[in-house]
Each structure stands twice: as C-alpha cells, then as structure tokens.
Amino acid sequence: MRNLSKLIFEGNLRAKHLLLDKSLDIMVIVFNNGSLVRVRLSDYPRLWNASASILDKWEFTQGGIGIRWEELDEDLSIKGFIKTAALNDALRNLEGH
C-alpha cells in the first residue's frame, strides 16, 4: 500500500470540492478520484467558531493539496485532513459510536 505522501505527490490526489454545513457539524472533501472524506467541523475550533459567511470564504491552495480561509488565517492540508478523519473514525469505533 502506498503511503499518503506518495498518493498526494506522486499519485496526484487533489481536493476537488469542499462541502461545509455547520448545522450538521460536517465538512466533506471530495477528491479528484471520486473518493470523499468527512469530518466534524467541530474538530477544527477556528472553523467551528467562525460565522457561516466566513466559512464560505475558502480557497484551494497549491492546486488542491490545501484549503485556506484567509480571514481566519487557517490552512488545512489534505494530508492532515485525511489523517484527522482516519484517527477520529478509529477513536469513535473504539468508543462504540
């Protein structure tokens, strides 16, 4: 199995769409290969505490390997996003949720 960095930098995995819904506490990244990763928006305190209008002001960076909210000075890499999603899923499974 290829590691995550190789998947991103050699396999050209890129974020294609970002979906945010604060009322559902959800953030979803859709990748250029059709895969998606979902996390709780509340896992990211700066984003969780931001207004909906500020949350909507994001942009992909570096061709889709990062996401930036300029007004919040918040940057997320897709590598970190995938790791957070995997860790949180594993913890919820271990807790029986």
Query: In this structure, how is the largest beta sheet organized?
Result: 3 strands, antiparallel
Structural class: alpha+beta
Number-wise, the strands total 6
State the shape.
globular
Q: Number of DSSP helices?
A: 4
**CATH architecture annotation:** 2-Layer Sandwich
**Helical fraction:** 25-40%
Whole-number count of domains: 1
- Overall mean pLDDT: 91
Report on the architecture of this protein:
- This protein has helices at residues 4-9, 45-48, 52-55, 78-95, and strands spanning 15-21, 26-31, 36-39, 59-61, 66-69, 74-77.
- The mean pLDDT is 91.
- With 97 residues, it is α+β, with helices and mostly antiparallel strands.
- It starts with a helix and ends with a helix.
- The longest helix has 18 residues, at 78-95.
- A hairpin with a 4-residue loop joins strand 5 (66-69) and strand 6 (74-77).
- The protein has a single domain (4-95), classed as Uncharacterised protein PF10387, DUF2442 (NE0471 N-terminal domain-like, 2-Layer Sandwich), CATH 3.30.2020.
Helix and strand arrangement:
Layout: H1 4-9, E1 15-21, E2 26-31, E3 36-39, H2 45-48, H3 52-55, E4 59-61, E5 66-69, E6 74-77, H4 78-95
Antiparallel strand pairs: 1-2, 2-3, 4-5, 5-6
